[in-house]
């Protein structure tokens, strides 16, 4: 577990665990899931000895549960936020069980997520994350810069991290849109029939998961905003309540943008499928119309040949030397008349 101290505009890594909270500023306790899972009781005792706050058993289990959804909870001593971020860090990006036979496109495989747990205490922030987290490491590097503005409270530090995590979802808009556009062109292509229905179904499932994920994130941020409004004293000089509300609203607005984009992509994909089936029905109708016209043209000709094929000794034109040509002429006139009739009724036109 790494312990950082933020005070007087300085960000520093402490060489050892302090005996208590600092008089000015606050502490950032950064720990991985594996470190807690190795000895949960020892980790909880270490946090309690530093912050004076006891972590409850349900929250301790939630912190190491890699399948836990996004949510917010609070007690009299601390508040807890579980936020699912994109698993873009490190080689192992499969925290969620997936079926091996699913054909998910490359753009949608980036929607695999991991939980990050935040525990906001009095002058302390505890983060529980994966062993490799690009978001956390990037923020730590930025805070080490002397010119970087330091967060003034644990809540502000958490909101900075959340804002960076949500921005990762926004970065996926272009590859997701490009993948949906490729499917649209494939669905509407008359030269190449679309056969990749399993991948399309898996894509809809992933987009639905993204939709539900964003709804959970928005609800959690709304509950945290209510917690800030109800519990933080505006007269507290250590916490700028207005700034926190602005940052919370900014995170919620970013989550809403991702949610709306996921809903638009899902609607676009559904529309493309409907247009595909409409085009297929239209092509089938064109084929059936052509076959119907051919059948209508040959029905009277078949009738004439059937009549002259009957076994009678005396029939008109049967023994005439011009009977064949007269019959062929009558057939040609019938075909021409039917084609003229079909043209007048616009049965052969492509446009109604």
Automatic annotation (TrEMBL):
One of its GO terms (molecular function) is magnesium ion binding. Gene3D superfamilies: Magnesium transport protein CorA, transmembrane region (1.20.58.340). It catalyses: Mg(2+)(in) = Mg(2+)(out). It is a multi-pass membrane protein. It comes from the Bacteria. The chain crosses the membrane at residues 290-312, 324-342. Keywords: Cell membrane, Ion transport, Magnesium, Membrane, Transmembrane, Transmembrane helix, Transport. One of its GO terms (cellular component) is plasma membrane. CDD domains: TmCorA-like. It is found in: Cell membrane. Mediates influx of magnesium ions. Alternates between open and closed states. Activated by low cytoplasmic Mg(2+) levels. Inactive when cytoplasmic Mg(2+) levels are high. Belongs to the CorA metal ion transporter (MIT) (TC 1.A.35) family. This is Magnesium transporter CorA family protein. It comes from Noviherbaspirillum galbum.
